[in-house]
């Protein structure tokens, strides 16, 4: 490749795509996803796409689709126009200088840049990220309909289809004892045919976690995600030490930056990190957090923010470059949405997501679908989390 690949133009649009059913987390329920899709053009005519999705407006963390779009249009795009797109770490540093935080927004811009540069070179993105070590990854499905019968039906169907045999159950909205009953009933129904995990999304205090997680483990749960508030490293440390011989404690909201990762490693405050391209601020920063995990003998799990096939494929490319100490991935967002923005989705076979090869992230954007779901065309407004769905705790 000769000469700089100058970044010429960057655009960001918000899409509104309904989910196939309500998706209920501890902090509320959603019935649509609003990913921000970035398109980046290089001076050589090549173009790349990136995505940042979050959940329920600014209710998963501080960023929202609207803040992501604004940070990109007002600060991140102006920071990168005219820069050499080959120098991705320099681009990340320049974005950091112009704009603190806003990792979700930065991840979408970096993703689009990697896509455009990889397409210029005619290579799959994994070749720019250290090379693939996995051709596929076990794929988890999240049971979060809010109704036990629907959850059990979804699980059995996906087992029969050979698509999923890892099921993550969203808990924390009900009374803890009711969550134990809910998880136990699903576990009984699956009779050891699946791996069971739970995600509390920060809902419990340390004492509630210490009291009720052993009952979750007795029910058959082996991986416990973010049981306490993101700041509560002390409780994560205690749970990691006391439950570690029966289950793994996984940090999600607590582990965003490499510095967060170092703190959890030093404190021995989790067994696994949920990696998410959005919260780390891009694919290169995902590898930085994964490197801390590997050095600290901490496992990794390929997390999602319920992206379309674009963001899911980009995540699959970087997860494919990581080590063997993984617990699979949960890049099932495309299957939760009523439709997609790519011409062909990643394949799922024998319970594993197949890494798409081909230039860039190995998926092609369907521009008509971008138009169809564009918020400006549909005249929709910002969505907030539906708190009514979060059952009042005792
Ligand atoms: C989260 O907190 O893990 C991942 C799967 C899901 O259903 O929600 C996301 C966010
Ligand atoms: Mg989580």
Description:
This protein is an alpha/beta fold and 394 residues long. The protein has two domains: 7-124 and 369-376, Enolase-like, domain 1, CATH 3.30.390.10; 127-364, TIM Barrel. It has 14 helices and 16 strands. The strands form four sheets. The protein has an eight-stranded parallel beta sheet with strand order 7-8-9-10-11-12-13-14. It has a three-stranded antiparallel beta sheet with strand order 1-4-5. Strand 8, helix 5 and strand 9 form a beta-alpha-beta unit. Helix 8 (258-267) runs parallel beside helix 10. The chain is globular and about 60 Å long. It binds [(2S)-5-oxo-2,5-dihydrofuran-2-yl]acetic acid and magnesium ion (MG). [(2S)-5-oxo-2,5-dihydrofuran-2-yl]acetic acid (MUC) binds at residues 55, 142, 144, 199, 201, 252, 303-306, 330.
């Amino acid at each position: 490749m000769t000469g700089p690949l100058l970044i010429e133009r960057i655009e960001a649009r918000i899409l509104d795509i309904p989910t196939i059913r309500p998706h209920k987390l501890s902090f509320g329920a959603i019935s649509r996803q609003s990913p921000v899709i970035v398109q980046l053009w290089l001076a050589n005519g090549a173009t790349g796409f990136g995505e940042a999705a979050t959940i329920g407006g600014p209710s998963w963390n501080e960023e929202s689709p609207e803040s992501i779009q604004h940070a990109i249009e007002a600060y991140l795009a102006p920071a990168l126009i005219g820069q050499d797109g080959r120098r991705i770490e320099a681009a990340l540093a320049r974005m950091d200088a112009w704009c603190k935080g806003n990792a979700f927004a930065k991840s979408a811009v970096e993703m689009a840049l990697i896509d455009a540069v990889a397409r210029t070179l005619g290579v799959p993105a994994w070749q720019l990220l250290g090379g693939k070590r996995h051709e596929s990854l076990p794929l988890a499905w999240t049971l979060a309909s809010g109704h036990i019968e629907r959850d059990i039906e979804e699980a059995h169907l996906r087992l029969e289809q050979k698509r999923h045999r890892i099921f993550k159950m969203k808990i924390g909205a009900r009374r803890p004892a009711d969550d134990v009953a809910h998880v136990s009933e699903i576990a009984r129904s699956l009779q050891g045919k699946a791996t069971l995990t739970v995600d509390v999304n920060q809902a419990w205090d340390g004492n509630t976690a210490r009291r009720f997680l052993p009952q979750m483990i007795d029910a058959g749960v082996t991986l416990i995600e973010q049981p306490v508030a993101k700041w509560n490293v002390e409780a994560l440390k205690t749970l990691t030490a006391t439950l570690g011989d029966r289950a793994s404690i996984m940090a999600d909201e607590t582990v965003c930056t490499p510095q967060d990762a170092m703190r959890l490693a030093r404190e021995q405050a989790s067994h696994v990190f949920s990696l998410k391209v959005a919260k780390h601020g891009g694919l290169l920063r995902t590898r930085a957090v994964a490197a801390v995990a590997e050095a600290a003998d901490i496992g990794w799990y390929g997390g999602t923010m319920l992206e379309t096939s674009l963001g899911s494929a980009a995540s699959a490319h970087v997860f494919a470059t990581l080590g063997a100490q993984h617990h699979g991935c949960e890049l099932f967002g495309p299957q939760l949405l009523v439709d997609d923005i790519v011409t062909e989705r990643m394949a799922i076979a024998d319970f594993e997501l197949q890494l798409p090869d081909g230039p860039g992230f190995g998926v092609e954007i369907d521009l008509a679908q971008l138009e169809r779901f564009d918020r400006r065309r549909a005249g929709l407004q910002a969505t907030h989390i539906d708190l009514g769905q979060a059952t009042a705790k005792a």
